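sanity check both lines:
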Amino acid sequence: MITFNGIDLVEHFNGDFIVNDIVGRGPMSQETTRISVPNRAGSYFQNRRKPERVLSVLITLKGASLSDIRTKVDELNGILNVAEPAPITFSDEPDKTYYGILDGEPDWNEIVYFGQGTLTFICPDPYKYGPELEATFPSDVVALNNNGTAPSDPIFEMEVLQPVTFAMIQNQDDE
């Protein structure tokens, strides 16, 4: 259900990694800056910004023993130990990618053969990204729709297959 930095954690732990809940993928938060003027009703809008996104993933890690859970936790720590935000995808939203890094101390409990806790990922870039689209013109007719939350402008690359020359021909009437 979660892929972090290209590693499907459920598959990696042979189904012993369970995602119970994910918080932070709802509507984006927004902060507005306003100025209030004394003796005047309301305020003046200045600007808005989108703050970082926080993804909280409540997980359960199963093991054959407490020692097995400790081994799996060490392995999970190794996977989550990255130097910068890494791609995160979820199976119910496979075409969207968040970029986040583990932050803070996870709330973690180990009872018998289960470890349970919340992994908090900070996404400094609050947007989620869809796949890059490519089209070849004129043979492909493609509607380029941005279904993600990040603003994006298309980038066009052209390869000229034959040399092109332009000749300016003056009309004799113009002379």
About this structure: Strands lie at 2-4, 7-8, 17-23, 31-35, 44-49, 53-62, 86-90, 93-102, 107-111, 114-123. The chain has a mean pLDDT of 87. The first strand starts at residue 2 and ends at 4.
